[in-house]
Design a protein that fits this description.
Layout: H1 2-18, H2 21-32, H3 36-39, H4 41-64, H5 66-86, H6 90-118, H7 122-148, H8 164-180, H9 194-208, H10 211-241, H11 246-252, H12 254-270, H13 276-302, H14 321-325, H15 329-333, H16 336-346, H17 353-382, H18 384-389, H19 392-414
């Protein structure tokens, strides 16, 4: 139980840090005079470090040791958090997200591998994994309110919000000490053959060029591009376009995280009765319709002269309707990513699940970086409304890609041994 609590706390720490990028993008624009395009680079520092380190760690995690890798990750982010208020600058922020991304790669690979060591059977494994993902969403939701508590709405240039990193350093430090004093028996994996580790890396590369996996990669890349573009820029959209106070802008972005969690929970039950392809097609059509409904409402709200009065008196009770409606897109896009991951893994032989998991992490990270950069460019050049209208493009692409993937996935299930590693 002590080890499970430790793993939960690890995930909460990284959920807060990773998903704070949207909040920090807004704040660095206020504090350091960084442009929207410049601020969007923070997503790249986070996601590219996840991609690179995940690619490498997949082959060498057992040699490092799972507990040691997690301790390195927690120690690294503790130091990075302490640097933020001590050296307030945009470069420090880049360093923080690079450290967070690299550390999360260590955490994710190690935690997932550790689950197999501490669970008794497949049902126990699945149960713990669900609890773990639930803890991640708890961290995402709490992060919005934690950051907003340190924001000074009366002085947008204030760096008082950086004090939140003392709290995060304390949480990460506590997670480090808890794990350090918790025993973990890794003897079952310490005998891993080095040639197998090299084989996993080579297998990942060969798997990536097979047709069904190429289509999956493009589908996953497009989904994460859309999701991260919206998630990373929603606080800025609320603040700069809807003219809400900064703290409220950050808090209301939590609606997207909450709706995403509810969407995935609901899909978990729905997919027991509804084929994944039909469900995802319906979700995408509804998501596109929601964009077309919510953004005209946002335009009316942004033109409201009362809202321009520095956000005086604004709270959850009288925030514009668009601030509530648009984040509900999370309900409908949420099922896509888990469903396609499950579909591709079930199309492949069991021996290929490890390399495939590596590809999922790498290309998801690349998609997140691209989505934030593109949305930031459109946001700066054409405005927030156009940036979010642009989400209709990946939604349309996903309708096409999922149709192609469904057909190819069906063939792969019939002839799984055609893909060799």
């Amino acid at each position: 139980m002590r080890l499970k609590i430790s793993l939960f706390l690890n995930y909460i720490v990284f959920a807060i840090l990773l998903n704070s990028v949207g909040t920090v993008i807004l704040q660095v624009q206020n504090n350091y005079g960084v442009s929207a395009v410049g601020a969007s680079a923070l997503e790249a520092f986070k996601d590219l470090s996840i991609a690179v380190v995940s690619f490498l760690v997949a082959s060498y995690a057992t040699r490092i040791g799972y507990k040691r890798a997690m301790l390195i990750a927690l120690g690294t982010v503790t130091v990075a958090c302490l640097l933020m208020p001590q050296l307030p600058a945009f470069w420090t922020t880049k360093l923080l997200f690079a450290a967070t991304g690299a550390s999360f790669a260590l955490i994710k690979v190690s935690v997932f591998a550790t689950i197999g060591l501490i669970t008794k059977n497949a049902d126990d494994h699945a149960s713990f994994m669900n609890f773990l993902e639930a803890m991640f969403m708890v961290g995402v939701l709490s992060g919005y309110f934690l950051f907003s508590a340190f924001v000074d709405d009366q002085n947008l240039q204030s760096t008082a919000w950086l004090r939140v990193y003392y709290v995060l350093a304390a949480i990460a430090g506590a997670a480090f000490l808890l794990l350090l004093t918790t025993p973990l028996n890794e003897s079952a994996v310490q005998t891993a053959d080095k040639t197998l580790q090299v084989g996993n890396l080579a297998g990942m590369l060969r798997l990536a060029v097979t047709p069904v996996v190429l289509v999956f990669i493009l589908t996953a890349f497009t989904y994460v591009l859309m999701e991260q573009g919206i998630m990373s820029w929603l606080p800025t959209f609320n603040s700069q376009y809807l003219k809400l106070p900064t703290s409220l802008s950050i808090q209301m972005a939590s609606i997207l995280a909450a709706s995403t969690a509810l969407g995935r929970l609901g899909a978990g039950f729905a997919l027991k009765r509804i084929p994944w392809y039909g469900l995802l097609m319906a979700c995408l059509i509804i998501a596109g319709s929601l964009v077309l409904v919510a953004l005209p409402l946002a335009e009316k709200a942004s033109q409201n002269t009362v809202a321009l009065a520095a956000g005086a008196g604004y709270g959850w009770a009288n925030a514009p309707l668009a601030a509530f409606i648009f984040p509900l897109i999370g309900l409908f896009i949420a099922p896509i990513y888990p469903a396609i991951n499950s579909a591709i893994l079930s199309s492949l032989p069991l021996r290929q699940h490890g390399p495939m998991a590596g590809l999922i992490v790498v290309f998801s990270a690349l998609g997140g970086t691209t989505g934030s950069l593109i949305t930031g460019r459109i946001f700066e050049t054409y405005g927030g409304q156009t940036a979010f209208y642009a989400s209709l493009v990946p939604i349309t692409l996903l309708l096409l890609l999922l149709t192609v993937f469904k057909r190819m996935q069906g063939k792969a299930v019939k002839t799984p041994e055609l893909v060799t590693v």
